[in-house]
Write a structure and sequence with these properties.
Elements: H1 15-27, H2 33-44, H3 48-51, H4 53-69, H5 78-98, H6 102-114, H7 118-127, H8 135-164, H9 168-183, H10 207-212, H11 214-220, H12 223-249, H13 258-267, H14 270-285, H15 287-308, H16 316-338, H17 345-401
């Protein structure tokens, strides 16, 4: 069956897993830094608060790139945009691999963030090609790709950095991105114009007007702002905990290597197994109800981190709980947007993702700053405050709009 624009109603069999693999390769780049942050601090001779600028500006640049570039996905070919963005990412990781100074590393990481569009173009692309009853499952596949990328990035970076130096991981990332830039466009349909409608592309909006059109669209759909704010807080919790863990576990007091951080991160890969089934659960019980439920689980995970103290293997329990709660919180948040009119989904997703990464950027710097001031205990406190705020907002959205 075809849509009014000649697009397939359903993706070919097996296409979603392949998209998930490509998304994993692209998403991994933001997470290589977590286990190796302690090694970079010592090599470049900077303090914890300063090194926090690397992930912080990466996330802020990502939010800026999403704001300025992602809306073009409602007008131009997602296929072309994905190819260009991944190619720029390959250049950025090469700069990071060759960096001999903190400013050069910061430049590469910031450029990398700005060009990270593919994981956020793909949900809108896919949502136009699956039936609404399969939206949760399809979104969960792509989120599983992100989870796999997070797991791969954090899982391989520590051992590789210990064996070959921290720059080696960014050389590997460059090669993987080049392969992805060649392969992913071959799996994407060329025809992808959205149907005309509310704010649709047939309006032929200029670039500035396209950006300005986000305001009226959001006023008609204010939940996009709320869902983005909730995800920004939840994602901030994730970054705050894992960046501080990279500093805490490799500190002189505990003396673990970066590989231990990676091994702990691998345990959070349980999300690979749970996210698809939990996506179907969100289809059944409702996105807002699922999000509120799993934000409660996130609070339990933070309490477990606090209870674990310095016992690294006791941290496995909250790591697993975070691996379960984080991805499905994101899936359910996206579902509140991706069920709306197809021709405005990319712009609504722009709002959601900008708020998500703005929150992540602020939390990245706040976490390393808090660690500098009060160590691991201060960082866990910051995470608990962020998670509590997300839970309150999610509960309010459930009361306001229902399941």
């Amino acid at each position: 069956m075809a849509t009014g624009q000649g697009l397939p109603q359903d993706l070919p069999p097996g296409r979603l897993p392949l998209y998930a693999v490509a998304v994993a390769v692209v998403a991994a780049n933001a997470y290589y830094f977590h286990p190796i942050i302690g090694l970079v601090v010592r090599d470049l001779q900077v303090d914890a608060a300063t090194i926090g600028l690397v992930p912080a500006l990466n996330q802020v640049a990502l939010a800026l790139g999403i704001l300025l570039l992602l809306p073009l996905g409602d007008r131009f070919s997602n296929r072309t945009m994905v190819t260009a963005a991944i190619s720029v990412q390959a250049l950025a990781t090469l700069i990071m691999a060759l960096a001999e100074s903190f400013p050069m590393l910061l430049l590469g990481s910031t450029l990398l963030g700005f060009a990270t569009l593919a994981p956020y173009l793909m949900p809108a692309y896919v949502s136009k090609r699956v039936e609404k009853r399969r939206l949760g499952q399809a979104t969960a596949w792509l989120t599983t790709g992100v989870v796999a990328g997070v797991l791969f990035g954090r899982g391989i970076a520590g051992p590789m950095a210990e064996a070959f130096g921290w720059r080696s991981i960014f050389f590997v990332a460059t090669g993987l991105l080049l392969l992805c830039a060649i392969g992913l466009p071959r799996l994407m349909e060329r025809g992808e114009r959205s149907p005309a409608g509310e704010g649709g592309v047939r309006e032929r909006l200029g670039y500035l007007n396209l950006l300005l059109s986000i305001g009226p669209i959001v006023r008609r759909h204010p939940e996009a702002l709320l869902s983005g704010a909730i995800q920004g807080l939840s994602f901030g919790v994730f970054l705050a905990l894992w960046l501080a863990l990279g500093l805490h576990l490799t500190s002189p007091r505990l003396g673990h290597g970066a590989d231990v951080v990676s091994y702990l991160a691998i345990l959070s890969g349980v999300g690979l197994l749970t996210t698809p089934s939990l996506g179907r659960l969100a289809d059944r019980i409702g996105a807002r109800r699922a999000r509120t439920l799993f934000l409660c689980l996130q609070m339990v995970a933070i309490g477990s981190f606090a209870a674990a103290g310095d016992a690294v293997w006791w941290m496995a329990v909250p790591a697993v709980l975070m691996g379960i709660s984080g991805p499905i919180t994101d899936v359910s948040g996206r579902m509140t947007i991706l069920g709306l009119a197809p021709e405005i989904r990319t712009r609504l997703m722009t709002v959601y993702v900008v708020l998500m990464f703005a929150g992540g950027g602020i939390a990245s710097w706040l976490s390393t700053f808090a660690y500098d001031l009060g160590g691991w205990t201060a960082n866990v406190t910051v995470a608990a405050l962020l998670s509590g705020a997300a839970l309150v907002l999610s509960a309010w959205s459930l009361w306001r709009w229902g399941r």
